[in-house]
Amino acid sequence: MAAPRPPLGGLSPQAFLRNHWQKRPLLVRQAIPGFSGVFDRLALFALAASDETEARLIERKPRWRVTQGPIDPRALSRLPARDWTLLVNGVNLHSARADELLQRFAFVSWARLDDVMVSDASDGGGVGPHVDSYDVFLLQGPGRRRWRLMAPGARPFKLVAGAPLRLIDGFRPTEEMILEPGDMLYLPPGWGHEGTALGPCQTYSVGFRAPGGAEISAAFLDFLHERGFGDVPYRDPGRKPATHPALIDAHMIDHAAKAIGRIRWNRADVARFLGRYLSEPKQHVVFDPPARPLGPAAFARKLGTARVRLDPRTRMLTQASRLYVNGAELAVPARTRKALQELADRREIEGARLARTGAMELIYDWYRHGYLELGDPP
Question: Which residues lie closer than 8 Å to 11 by C-beta, 6 or more apart?
Fold first, then answer.
């Protein structure tokens, strides 16, 4: 199966990454001609009310107000005619069409791709001028939206004090454009931007993971702790009576420094940590195992003629001889490595290929956990 075509308006992924990625914005007219969206408003309202999604309702008048999900459908039904925006994250986990949209950006890598968010806005709706720390593609669905951009300067943007959103204080746009259905705008991290709905509209945002150093460091320390630290018993023979009982003495500091100094890791440890960390689903993600799973023999028969497709919620990454699936780490035998790499890359593969590699037991376990499904061949 060929990889989905990136919606870059004829620009190759190589040219895009070389000339625009994390450098400058790109406006693509009719990136997906006449794109009409994936969800209607009622379907989005239902998702926003679920505890299996992340949602926010943002109202801008009489003053900015943010309501975190799950959001009561009755509150959504009573919204005024203008000046509000409903944001629903991770819609690719609830729609095959939204998941297919996300896959069109896999030329960047699954380790960096995050999710698809829908912004459903009334006339005048938006989230104000703000800046993101990650790359984003903004694909216009039904309706129109005006975007105003402000290039980053030598200093970080000043933010409005006390606002419930990270609004830019003194926003002075240098570019302006109106997106029609199917148009797409790429924005690198650090660019100030403001989108305002010109009538009811939907925007589909494809966002990327950009874990900062502090986030990665904290998670890596958890990984090292889970792996286990060597213990060094504390001893202080010959202790003398304390002159200042509140003083932390030098011996205790030396002991702590020695224990911490014994912690060791190498590049291979970091690679294994990243595989687990980047493949871990978000906390609210819940898998749905099959209600009446096939038995092993029936599954083996069907595997030979079916197409194996990863569930949209499954995060599957590879690194050398190791495989990472939803936070779990596996050593991959050489005979199955190529087929599992293709499954990770393409998100689907002929079941017969997996069966021939001897991976049936592993695939059956994933099937029983709801990580993948057996679909009809194309």
Answer: 26, 28
Distances in Å between the Cα of 67 and the Cα atoms of 115, 163, 214 are 21, 14, 28
Burial 321-347, CB ≥16 within 10 A → b, else e = ebbbbbeeeeebeeebbebbebbbebb
Angle at which helix 267-279 crosses helix 213-227, to 10 degrees, equals 100
**Three-state secondary structure call for residue 137:** strand
- Rounded Cα distance between 230 and 255, Å, is 13
CB of 314 closer than 8 Å to CB of 348: no
What letter represents residue 234's amino acid?
Y
pLDDT in tens, the chain (378 residues): 556 789 999 999 999 999 999 999 999 999 999 899 999 999 999 999 999 899 999 998 888 999 999 999 888 989 999 999 999 999 999 999 999 999 999 999 999 999 999 999 999 999 999 999 999 999 999 999 999 999 998 888 999 998 899 899 999 999 999 999 999 999 999 999 999 999 999 999 999 998 889 999 999 999 999 988 888 889 998 888 889 999 999 999 999 999 899 899 999 999 999 999 999 999 889 999 999 999 999 999 999 999 999 999 999 999 988 999 999 999 988 899 999 999 999 999 999 999 999 889 999 999 999 999 998 876
| Beta strands, E only, 132-274 | 136-140, 145-150, 175-179, 184-187, 192-197, 201-208
